[in-house]
Amino acid sequence: MAKYDQECNREFSALQKKVDKYFLDVTVSCPYYLPYPATFYQGLFGPLSDRMMELFLAAGYRRNGNSLYAMHCRNCNACVPIRLHPKLFKPNRNQKRIWRRNKDVDISIALIRPTAEKLELCEDFLSRRYPHEGNTAEAYYSGFFLNKITSTFEIRYRVEGKLIGNGIVDIGSNWLNAVYFFFDESEAGRSPGIFNILTMINFCLNKGIDYLYLGYNIDQISSMNYKTRFHPHFLYDNTRWVEHN
Hints:
There is one protein chain. The protein has 245 residues and is of the alpha+beta class. The protein has 2 domains: 3-78, no CATH class; 82-244, Gcn5-related N-acetyltransferase (GNAT) (Aminopeptidase), CATH 3.40.630. The chain has 7 helices and 12 strands. Strands 6-7-8-9-10-5-11-12 form an 8-stranded mixed beta sheet. Helix 1 crosses helix 2 (50-58). The radius of gyration is 17 Å and the shape is globular. It starts with a helix and ends with a strand. 29% of the residues are buried.
């Protein structure tokens, strides 16, 4: 295990003893339509220090609004946290093609802010991908994206002024956390999900950020497992990050 992860494990073990009392299990239908109940082990927090957020991410936790959570599903272990080390990343031929294909995309970064344009794009994306009851763009922004825990920004992708994608990203001094990405389905030929990750990798390299957290890899779901096409990647196995080339 790398020295960095050893230090994180040691610090998180001490932190966990203090905050474990604030967590509880919440069981719902699987948001990814897998045939098992999903149990979120989650706690509600106020503002966290950069290091505390880093420790939770390094321990496989995710953020949803002002909550941090890990999956405690009884009959399923499909959701596996995935992390990239941007300085080690080697793009493959297809990823290089996707980067060139999107050279006409105007990329901007700004503080997260819901607008009618973004809400409309997000609403359309959710209705096509995850048409659960209550899954609305306004609910995603107010209850998922916006938060008081950490610093969050948006990566906006435009072509000739038209918004074709929007990424929600948490940021710390040495880590980036990809929270969510939604895009115009008519632009699927651009492989926007892959381009978004390539953009975040490039951002990390420019800012000297060592760790990029991509959420969960789910082998059974194509919209989630494409993250493993980035090499090397690291998957969280209980208490350690295992490298996959």
